[in-house]
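Q: What residues go here?
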């Protein structure tokens, strides 16, 4: 019998996950289908009960339910628990187990072209949900420093305090961090600044970026934010948010099927959907 997979969010119409996972199910000849469901916060518990009752294979969880889903699950893996957010759930013999593949997805996408973070000086821009998943995951990779720059430095301090993994870390304002960008080997932009339609906005001044640095932006619409364009002009290597999106999906697919899928195929599929160029 065909297995159901799903993504729960609100709104959900824009999600590219159905396209990505349905293509993989047919490519690997798995009898399954992935559907988007728009779920209001007050209906989340019922939605999970319904999915459980019909024997869902697994599902993704997106904004705004990544934290509020946790009480409705049977188990949550330690990284997701420390982050306080779940984006992937698997049904293991009737037990719903939650994972967070956002941080590990970012790391896997990064290390495909930037092999090691160990010994590197890293700056994360932003202190929201995405920053938290990325920061906690990178903290385990033993960077020399893992600093955060945020509009509200107190939010960055709270995030640093919550991290269960030991790492040297300072919180800065965006202005302070902008003046010392030359210090960093890796810079990861996690805020929504520069996302379409506000494509002319910059989260931080890039004048002090060093030429040898790696600069990532988790935004993929546009494919190159102004921040990435300017970092490239300064000679930095850049990566957009497609890699994190594709790898978080690949890790979810692996949790559900034990198959680590063809990420090149996934990337091409997503880029085609976005109207970008495939490489
Ligand atoms: P997500 O869960 O997608 O990461 P979020 O939790 O809303 O989104 O986090 C948004 C992040 O972007 C925060 O770091 C926020 O800064 P504050 O902690 O000061 O709120 C940052 N952010 C959002 N809009 C911003 C803006 N216009 N200027 C500067 N920072 C902004």
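A:
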């Amino acid at each position: 019998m065909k297995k159901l997979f799903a993504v729960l969010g609100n709104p959900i119409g824009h999600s590219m996950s159905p396209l990505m996972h349905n293509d993989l199910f047919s490519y690997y000849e798995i009898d399954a289908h992935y559907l988007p469901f728009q779920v209001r916060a007050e209906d989340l518990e019922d939605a999970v009960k319904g999915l459980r009752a019909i024997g869902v294979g697994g599902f993704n969880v997106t904004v705004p339910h990544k934290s509020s889903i946790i009480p409705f699950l049977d188990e949550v893996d330690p990284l997701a628990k420390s982050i306080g957010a779940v984006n992937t759930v698997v049904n293991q013999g009737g037990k719903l187990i939650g994972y967070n593949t956002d941080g590990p997805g970012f790391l896997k996408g990064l290390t495909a072209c930037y092999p090691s973070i160990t010994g590197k000086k890293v700056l994360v821009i932003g202190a929201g949900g995405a920053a938290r998943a990325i920061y906690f995951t990178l903290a385990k990779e033993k960077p020399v420093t893992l600093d955060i720059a945020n509009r509200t430095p107190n939010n960055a301090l709270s995030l640093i305090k919550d991290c269960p993994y030991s790492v040297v870390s300072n919180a800065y304002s965006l202005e302070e961090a902008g003046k010392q960008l030359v210090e960093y080997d890796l810079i990861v932009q996690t805020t929504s600044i520069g996302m379409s339609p506000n494509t002319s906005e910059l989260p931080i001044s890039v004048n002090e970026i060093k030429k040898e640095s790696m600069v990532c932006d988790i935004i993929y619409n546009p494919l190159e934010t102004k921040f990435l364009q300017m970092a490239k002009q300064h000679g930095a290597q850049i990566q957009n948010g497609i890699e994190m999106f594709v790898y978080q999906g690949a890790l979810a697919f692996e949790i559900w099927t034990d198959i680590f899928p063809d990420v090149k195929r996934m990337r091409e599929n997503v880029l085609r959907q976005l109207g970008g160029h495939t490489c």
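A: Context that may help when evaluating the design: The pocket of 2'-monophosphoadenosine-5'-diphosphate is lined by residues 126-131, 150-152, 155, 190-193 (CB under 6 Å). The mean pLDDT is 96.
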